[in-house]
Design a protein that fits this description.
Elements (H helix, E strand, L loop, with lengths): L2 H38 L12 E4 L4 H11 L9 E6 L5 H16 L3 H4 E6 L5 H12 L3 E4 L5 H14 L5 E5 L10 H8 L5 E4 L2 H6 L4 E2 L5
Parallel strand pairs: 1-2, 1-4, 2-3, 4-5, 5-6, 6-7
């Protein structure tokens, strides 16, 4: 066997693999730039049909603020609603269920037709739980306001957009308790540009983070 032919084939194969890798990386970078560009544009198009919404609840004040926000949400537009909370949070999903029960009673419907409730377990299998939850519930929108649970879910949603698996909008509403600085969750979503829109409730906060949207007090 001619060793020169073997070396030549090996070199061609290596070049082909390297070229393919460069091509794939280039496609991902182009897609990433497109996602960042599209996410930075104003959202002017109104949804013509109900938008499935993933709502991430935190404990304590996070849940109280989120539920106050949900009270004034247009329920017919953001439907069905999927609630997610940490397994160690024993109260948030119960409060969300009470809200959905009252809405179902008012509209003479069943809660199972409009809402689902899930927990994310903080264990070794947490990665699988996150992926499964997002894959089965994420359709068009994520609404969150600060719990650490939201970061992995938002990151997965962003990766799905970059890979072209599923496009979703991420809305982050910063807590009213944050007057001068964003929370860690808000800062990560802002700096990494994962949130399509980041709302703040204090004008000085918007001046410090100009890409945020000041909406005044929501609660």
């Amino acid at each position: 066997m001619d060793k020169s032919n073997g070396c030549s084939f090996s070199s061609i194969f290596s070049i082909a693999v390297f070229s393919s890798a460069i091509f794939v990386v280039s496609l991902i970078l182009v897609r990433l730039l497109y996602v960042l560009y599209r996410s930075s544009r104003p959202l002017s198009k109104r949804a013509s049909k109900p938008v499935s919404t993933l709502i991430i609840l935190g404990s304590g004040g996070h849940t109280a603020e989120m539920l106050n926000l949900l009270v004034v949400l247009q329920k017919d537009r953001f439907n069905p609603r999927f609630y997610i909370a940490a397994a160690t949070d024993n109260m948030s999903l119960q409060k969300a269920q009470l809200l959905e029960n009252s809405l179902a009673a008012e509209n003479a419907t069943r809660v199972t037709d409009t809402a689902q409730f899930m927990k994310i377990y903080r264990s070794r299998e947490v990665g699988q739980s996150y992926i499964t939850s997002v894959w089965t519930t994420l359709v068009a929108m994520i609404l969150c306001n600060g719990p650490g649970t939201c970061i992995p879910l938002c990151a997965i949603a962003f990766i799905f957009k970059v890979l072209g698996i599923r496009w979703s909008l991420i809305f982050y509403v910063e807590s009213i308790a944050r007057v001068r600085r964003l929370s860690l969750s808000g800062l990560l979503l802002y700096k990494l540009r994962m949130a399509d829109q980041l709302f703040v409730q204090w004008p000085q906060l918007q001046r410090q983070y100009p890409r945020a949207t000041y909406v005044g007090r929501l609660m």
